[in-house]
Amino acid sequence: MPSKRKTVQIVAVAFLLLSGLLLFPNTSWSDSTSVVGYISLLFGIAGSICSVFIPTTYVQDFTEKDWTLRKGTSLKSDSYDSFFLKIDVKKHKMGKTPTGTVYFLTEDGRYVDGGMYSFYHDECGNIEIKANHNFPGKVIVRVS
């Protein structure tokens, strides 16, 4: 079932197509303004159709083995371990300022919001997720 956003986009494309069909016989092809207006409508239809197929989210499942362990020390000189999960911008394709949510996979197969992680991206859009322990789950990356 399509999302609400996708449904609205599809309905908008349908109305634009209908307007293009209805305006075609009523366009004054000898008037340049009328022709430019109709051509603009066609470009709007093409852009709207393309927008239906452009993804707005990226989902990646991961396991405990996908995390990278980094050892370090805290300000109190206690040792600590941090786990990192990286997603390259070429992989998620959500732009330079993505947002995201990380979910734990529970033993009964449900996904719940992890909450105990840090989500960063660099100036290029490469994502790094930091957690205190590794866990199976998924991350949903969105265009911001």
Low-confidence stretches at least 5 residues in length (pLDDT < 50)?
Answer: none
The general outline is elongated
- Helices, by number, come to 3
Rg over CA atoms, rounded to whole Å, is 23 Å
Overall average residue pLDDT: 88
What's the main sheet like?
4 strands, antiparallel
* Total individual domains: 2
| C-alpha end-to-end distance | 23 Å
What level of helicity do the residues show? 25-40%
- How much beta, percentage-wise? 25-35%
Q: Spell the H/E element sequence.
A: HHEEEHEEEEE
What's the β-strand tally?
A: 8
Query: From the helix content, strand content and strand pairing, which structural class follows?
Result: alpha+beta
Strand order of the largest sheet: 1-8-4-5
Written account of the structure:
This protein has 144 residues and is an alpha+beta fold. It folds into two domains: 4-53; 57-142, no CATH class. Helix content is 32%, strand content 33%. The chain is built from three helices and eight strands; from the N terminus they run ααβββαβββββ. It has helices at 4-23, 32-53, 89-92, and strands at 57-62, 68-73, 79-87, 99-105, 111-113, 117-121, 127-131, 137-142. It has a four-stranded antiparallel sheet with strand order 1-8-4-5, with no helix packed on it. The protein has a four-stranded antiparallel sheet with strand order 2-3-7-6. Strand 2 and strand 3 form a beta hairpin. Helix 1 packs antiparallel against helix 2 (32-53). The mean pLDDT is 88.
